[in-house]
Amino acid sequence: MRAAVFPAPGELLVVARDAAHAAENQVLVRVEACGVCGTDLHIHRGLFPARFPLVAGHELAGVVEEAGPGVLHLWPGDHVAVDPNASCGVCRACRRGLGHLCANLSAIGVTADGGFATHCLVPARQAHRIAKDMAFPVAALAEPLACCLHGIERAGIGSGDVVLIIGAGLVGMLMVQLALLQGAAAVVVSEPAARKRETALRLGAHRVVDPAGEDLAQAVRDVTEEVGADVVIECVGGQATAQQAIALAGAGARVILFGVAPQSDRIAVSPYELYRREITITGSFVNPFTQAAALSLLQSGRVQVTDLITHRLPLEELPQAFALMESGEATKIVIEPQG
Predict the structure, then answer these.
(1) What are the CA-CA distances from residue 79 to residues 62, 89, 122, 133, 181 (Å)?
(2) Three-state DSSP class for 317?
(3) Global model pTM greater than 0.90
(4) Is 150 part of the annotated catalytic residue set?
(5) Could you state, in order of their start, the residue ranges of all structural domains in the chain?
(6) pLDDT tens digits, residue range 230-278?
(7) Looking at domain 2-141+309-335, does it have CATH number 3.90.180.10?
(8) Please, what CATH class does the domain formed by 148-283 belong to?
């Protein structure tokens, strides 16, 4: 088998490895598609906590090649999409039904080897069988969609709400579609890249704004009759955009800080403004019990991702994938290790 290994932050080698075999309650998945996420780039840079040496990649789909002892619901030949996040089941968070906040959370591609390889060992309970007519690159994106579903649940969008989405990468594009499915009356998108703004319009955004050349605050006031957005979803992960999200929230609004900001970032918040305007600021972390729903939305076509995949690259071109992400040229890159 071949794998893209991060020996340490800043290092990346594509190497040959001995064949893996499934242990008890594991399946060995032949990886057909693995999405490249901003978290993978942060891990590579040493900006996100991970276990090194590491094979990253947590958005994966493929074919079961081997099922270990104790696996009763999957068989060789089954097509699967993988939920990378596994809880311990016994810590206080787990026993309160908050498994995604598990004190001992493990994650394929972060604390265990992931999908930037021809094969990946997966806890069988984390593998979801998918229809054999479902394209692997689409199925691989169930993981980011599942995370977005949790964020949308946290946002509490009501029918008729005006939603502002800051950032129109893959996550922002998914949020546009989910907000509309929740009954948003209008979705405003802030995104500096013209190509991404055009895509957001095609997906149903009512207004797109270039924050580099337009007054986003005025655009929000225009759409909301001067009162501010009902829901703001920050999908960039940065100090400036998080601050902006709070500033553009209207009375009684919910602000979702969804983008993964550097741990060192800090923002200034006025306690009086939170009190007076009853603004709720919340985070959204990973995908608790939303993977199956994400797969259903993709299978039904209610959420579209095919046109959001701008690049499909072989394993050896993972460094080029990171360069494309940093340049802003890509919306979503999928690695196809078998190519």
Answers:
(1) 6, 27, 13, 9, 28
(2) helix
(3) yes
(4) no
(5) 2-141+309-335, 148-283
(6) 999 999 999 999 999 999 999 999 999 999 998 899 999 999 999 999 9
(7) yes
(8) alpha beta
